[in-house]
Protein backbone atom coordinates (compact mmCIF):
# COMPACT_ATOMS: atom_id res chain seq x y z
CA UNK A 1 0.00 0.00 0.00
CA UNK A 2 2.88 2.36 0.72
CA UNK A 3 4.17 1.94 -2.87
CA UNK A 4 0.80 3.07 -4.31
CA UNK A 5 0.80 6.14 -2.09
CA UNK A 6 4.31 7.06 -3.25
CA UNK A 7 3.31 6.66 -6.93
CA UNK A 8 0.16 8.70 -6.37
CA UNK A 9 2.12 11.39 -4.50
CA UNK A 10 4.75 11.52 -7.29
CA UNK A 11 2.02 11.98 -9.95
CA UNK A 12 0.39 14.69 -7.84
CA UNK A 13 3.65 16.61 -7.43
CA UNK A 14 4.48 16.33 -11.16
CA UNK A 15 0.97 17.47 -12.12
CA UNK A 16 1.12 20.39 -9.66
CA UNK A 17 4.53 21.48 -10.94
CA UNK A 18 3.43 21.23 -14.57
CA UNK A 19 0.30 23.22 -13.85
CA UNK A 20 2.26 25.83 -11.89
CA UNK A 21 4.83 26.26 -14.67
CA UNK A 22 2.09 26.49 -17.29
CA UNK A 23 0.16 29.13 -15.36
CA UNK A 24 3.34 31.11 -14.66
CA UNK A 25 4.14 31.21 -18.36
CA UNK A 26 0.66 32.52 -19.07
CA UNK A 27 0.94 35.22 -16.41
CA UNK A 28 4.37 36.25 -17.62
CA UNK A 29 3.28 36.52 -21.26
CA UNK A 30 -0.06 38.21 -20.50
CA UNK A 31 1.43 41.67 -19.80
CA UNK A 32 2.96 41.67 -23.28
CA UNK A 33 -0.43 40.93 -24.80
CA UNK A 34 -1.97 43.68 -22.67
CA UNK A 35 0.75 46.15 -23.72
CA UNK A 36 0.15 45.26 -27.37
CA UNK A 37 -3.58 45.84 -26.94
CA UNK A 38 -2.94 49.24 -25.31
CA UNK A 39 -0.49 50.21 -28.09
CA UNK A 40 -3.01 49.17 -30.75
CA UNK A 41 -5.73 51.13 -29.01
CA UNK A 42 -3.47 54.20 -28.72
CA UNK A 43 -2.54 53.94 -32.41
CA UNK A 44 -6.20 53.69 -33.37
CA UNK A 45 -7.09 56.71 -31.23
CA UNK A 46 -4.13 58.66 -32.62
CA UNK A 47 -5.33 57.93 -36.15
CA UNK A 48 -8.81 59.10 -35.16
CA UNK A 49 -7.43 62.34 -33.72
CA UNK A 50 -5.33 63.00 -36.83
CA UNK A 51 -8.29 62.28 -39.11
CA UNK A 52 -10.49 64.68 -37.12
CA UNK A 53 -7.77 67.33 -37.17
CA UNK A 54 -7.35 67.04 -40.95
CA UNK A 55 -11.06 67.80 -41.41
CA UNK A 56 -10.23 71.33 -40.27
CA UNK A 57 -7.25 72.00 -42.56
CA UNK A 58 -7.42 75.65 -43.63
CA UNK A 59 -9.78 76.63 -40.79
CA UNK A 60 -8.83 80.19 -39.72
CA UNK A 61 -6.58 80.93 -36.76
CA UNK A 62 -7.72 83.33 -34.06
CA UNK A 63 -5.71 83.91 -30.91
CA UNK A 64 -7.91 83.21 -27.89
CA UNK A 65 -10.54 81.43 -30.00
CA UNK A 66 -13.49 80.30 -27.91
CA UNK A 67 -13.17 76.68 -26.80
CA UNK A 68 -15.65 74.19 -28.21
CA UNK A 69 -16.56 76.02 -31.43
CA UNK A 70 -15.02 75.24 -34.83
CA UNK A 71 -15.29 78.52 -36.81
CA UNK A 72 -11.78 79.48 -35.71
CA UNK A 73 -9.09 77.89 -33.55
CA UNK A 74 -5.97 78.88 -31.73
CA UNK A 75 -3.37 76.17 -31.20
CA UNK A 76 -4.61 74.91 -27.85
CA UNK A 77 -8.34 75.20 -28.58
CA UNK A 78 -7.62 73.07 -31.66
CA UNK A 79 -5.83 70.31 -29.72
CA UNK A 80 -8.42 70.50 -26.94
CA UNK A 81 -11.28 70.15 -29.45
CA UNK A 82 -9.71 67.28 -31.42
CA UNK A 83 -8.83 65.25 -28.34
CA UNK A 84 -12.24 65.86 -26.74
CA UNK A 85 -13.79 64.25 -29.84
CA UNK A 86 -11.95 61.01 -28.98
CA UNK A 87 -12.72 61.20 -25.27
CA UNK A 88 -9.53 62.83 -23.95
CA UNK A 89 -10.00 65.97 -21.87
CA UNK A 90 -7.22 68.54 -22.14
CA UNK A 91 -6.92 71.85 -20.32
CA UNK A 92 -7.38 75.06 -22.33
CA UNK A 93 -3.88 76.54 -22.79
CA UNK A 94 -0.72 75.13 -24.35
CA UNK A 95 1.16 75.75 -21.08
CA UNK A 96 -1.44 73.75 -19.13
CA UNK A 97 -1.49 71.01 -21.79
CA UNK A 98 2.31 70.69 -21.53
CA UNK A 99 1.87 69.16 -18.05
CA UNK A 100 -0.72 66.51 -18.98
CA UNK A 101 0.11 62.88 -19.79
CA UNK A 102 3.65 61.55 -19.75
CA UNK A 103 6.90 63.00 -21.06
CA UNK A 104 8.11 61.76 -24.46
CA UNK A 105 11.60 62.37 -25.82
CA UNK A 106 11.85 63.89 -29.28
CA UNK A 107 13.39 60.69 -30.62
CA UNK A 108 10.44 58.63 -29.32
CA UNK A 109 7.59 60.68 -30.80
CA UNK A 110 4.55 58.73 -32.02
CA UNK A 111 1.51 59.88 -33.93
CA UNK A 112 -0.95 61.47 -31.52
CA UNK A 113 1.66 62.93 -29.17
CA UNK A 114 1.33 66.60 -28.27
CA UNK A 115 4.40 68.64 -29.28
CA UNK A 116 5.20 71.98 -27.64
CA UNK A 117 7.17 75.01 -28.79
CA UNK A 118 8.26 78.42 -27.61
CA UNK A 119 7.50 81.41 -29.81
CA UNK A 120 10.03 83.87 -31.26
CA UNK A 121 11.12 86.37 -28.64
CA UNK A 122 10.00 84.19 -25.72
CA UNK A 123 12.46 81.29 -25.52
CA UNK A 124 12.01 78.70 -22.80
CA UNK A 125 8.27 79.30 -22.34
CA UNK A 126 5.64 77.04 -23.91
CA UNK A 127 3.40 79.11 -26.18
CA UNK A 128 2.43 76.69 -28.95
CA UNK A 129 1.10 73.12 -29.26
CA UNK A 130 0.46 70.78 -32.16
CA UNK A 131 -0.43 67.13 -32.70
CA UNK A 132 2.43 65.00 -34.00
CA UNK A 133 1.27 63.00 -37.05
CA UNK A 134 4.49 61.15 -37.90
CA UNK A 135 7.41 61.61 -40.30
CA UNK A 136 8.51 64.82 -38.57
CA UNK A 137 5.15 66.53 -39.13
CA UNK A 138 2.48 67.99 -36.87
CA UNK A 139 -0.99 69.33 -37.48
CA UNK A 140 -1.43 72.70 -35.79
CA UNK A 141 -2.75 76.19 -36.30
CA UNK A 142 -1.17 79.63 -36.25
CA UNK A 143 -1.36 82.85 -38.25
CA UNK A 144 -2.58 83.24 -41.81
CA UNK A 145 -3.48 79.88 -43.27
CA UNK A 146 -4.92 78.54 -40.04
CA UNK A 147 -4.91 74.77 -39.47
CA UNK A 148 -2.06 73.20 -41.42
CA UNK A 149 0.55 70.47 -41.46
CA UNK A 150 4.02 71.70 -40.49
CA UNK A 151 7.38 69.94 -40.36
CA UNK A 152 8.77 70.27 -36.83
CA UNK A 153 12.34 70.02 -38.13
CA UNK A 154 12.07 72.93 -40.56
CA UNK A 155 12.67 76.64 -40.17
CA UNK A 156 12.62 77.92 -36.63
CA UNK A 157 10.34 75.10 -35.45
CA UNK A 158 13.31 72.85 -34.78
CA UNK A 159 15.09 75.34 -32.52
CA UNK A 160 11.87 76.30 -30.70
CA UNK A 161 10.87 72.70 -29.92
CA UNK A 162 10.53 72.31 -26.16
CA UNK A 163 8.89 69.02 -25.16
CA UNK A 164 6.26 66.44 -25.97
CA UNK A 165 3.58 64.65 -23.98
CA UNK A 166 1.73 61.41 -24.60
CA UNK A 167 -1.93 61.51 -23.62
CA UNK A 168 -3.08 58.38 -25.47
TrEMBL record:
Recorded GO MF terms: cysteine-type peptidase activity
UniProt cross-references to InterPro entries, sorted A to Z: NLP_P60_dom, Papain-like_cys_pep_sf, Peptidase_C40
Alphabetical list of Pfam families matching this protein: NLPC_P60 (PF00877)
Residues spanning the signal sequence: 1-25
Gene3D superfamilies: endopeptidase domain like (from Nostoc punctiforme)
One Gene Ontology term from the biological process aspect of the record: proteolysis
UniProt key word Protease: yes
NlpC/P60 domain segment(s): 43-168
UniProt keyword list: Hydrolase, Protease, Signal, Thiol protease
Family named by the database record: Belongs to the peptidase C40 family.
Protein name: C40 family peptidase
Species annotation: Paenibacillus sp. SYP-B3998
Amino acid sequence: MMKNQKKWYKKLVITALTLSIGLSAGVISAPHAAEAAVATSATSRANQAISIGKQYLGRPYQFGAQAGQTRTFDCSSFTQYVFKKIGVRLPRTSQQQSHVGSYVSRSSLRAGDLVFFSIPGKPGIVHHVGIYIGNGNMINTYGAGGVRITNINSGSWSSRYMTARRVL
